[in-house]
Specification:
single chain, 16 helices
Length: 287
């Protein structure tokens, strides 16, 4: 039985995870990987997120990333590893995270006692993450913890993000949602990426999106206007509840007071980062 308030772990994740994600919208990542010779934005994303897996091929990355078109992944992997090694990419990624967080948060926050406390809390939560059946988490858990608090916090956020993400993929499989159906149904909640961002980054075509929408309508999960039906809303809610259950251990380990404190600290950092332009304005929405 949980010792935490309902959805406390999810709220904490929703505060911590975006601080990790700032990297993938940052020009600093493109600068660092461009210096290694990785100039294509999609190749840079696959390399930066997948480097912890080693010189993985397209099949491994498609399976662990879930919602990308395999044809897009295969255009860049494993070829990108002939341009830069996984170790070189990991080092560049950490430099980019350093520059990005310093730019978005400022030295008063990155060097603050609050940041050190947040790093300690997030790392303590990650102690209870488990490796089995969680390949992206397990790969990142083998990386060293950076010494500087803001980078230690970013590393811990990465661990918590990938731990939850690996569990979420299991929930998607159990719900019978393929990669495009998962994207369409998430967008239909109003909390997922807009179709323009999905189609522009995941390698799918409008025809793929429309076909997935038709399959969801046939299952009674989506209506003719592209909104979730009652059954669709219930399925997405069940998905999140299942993901919460699979991801409960880190937050139970941290305890209610620790979760509440980490959530508050991360929300403050996130507000500052978002106000500094960390995320595109049209990223989220149904349109």
């Amino acid at each position: 039985m949980s010792t935490l308030p309902p959805r406390a772990g999810r709220r904490c994740h929703n505060a911590v995870n975006p601080l990790h994600s700032t990297l993938f919208f940052s020009p600093d990542l493109a600068t660092e990987l461009g210096a290694l010779g990785i100039d294509d934005a999609r190749a840079a994303y696959f390399a930066a997120r997948g480097a912890a897996l080693g010189a993985a091929g397209a099949g491994t990355v498609t399976s662990t990333f879930y919602n990308f078109n395999h044809e897009l992944v295969a255009r860049h992997l494993p070829a990108v590893w002939s341009v830069a090694s996984p170790d070189a990419v990991l080092a560049a990624r950490l430099r980019a995270a350093d520059t990005t967080l310093r730019r978005l948060l400022g030295k008063e926050i990155t060097g603050s006692s609050d940041m050190a406390e947040a790093a300690e809390l997030a790392l303590r939560a990650a102690e209870a993450c488990t490796r089995h059946a969680r390949p992206l988490y397990a790969a990142h858990a083998d990386l060293p913890v950076p010494s500087e608090p803001h980078l230690a916090f970013w590393h811990a956020a990465t661990l918590l993000r990938e731990h939850r993400g690996d569990g979420h993929l299991a929930a998607l499989l159990a719900a019978g949602l393929d990669p495009v159906e998962a994207l369409v149904s998430h967008t239909a909640t109003g909390k997922g990426m807009s179709p323009r961002w999905v189609l522009g980054t995941r390698g799918w075509r409008r025809a793929d999106w429309d076909a997935a929408s038709a399959r969801l309508r046939a299952r009674g999960l989506l209506d003719g206007e592209g909104s979730l039906t009652e059954a669709g809303t219930a399925l997405r809610a069940e998905l999140e509840e299942t993901t919460d259950r699979l991801d409960a251990a880190p937050y139970e380990h941290l305890g209610a007071d620790g979760v509440a404190r980490l959530t508050d600290l991360a929300r403050g950092f996130l507000f500052t980062a978002a106000s500094a332009g960390a995320f595109p304005g049209d990223l989220i929405g149904k349109g």
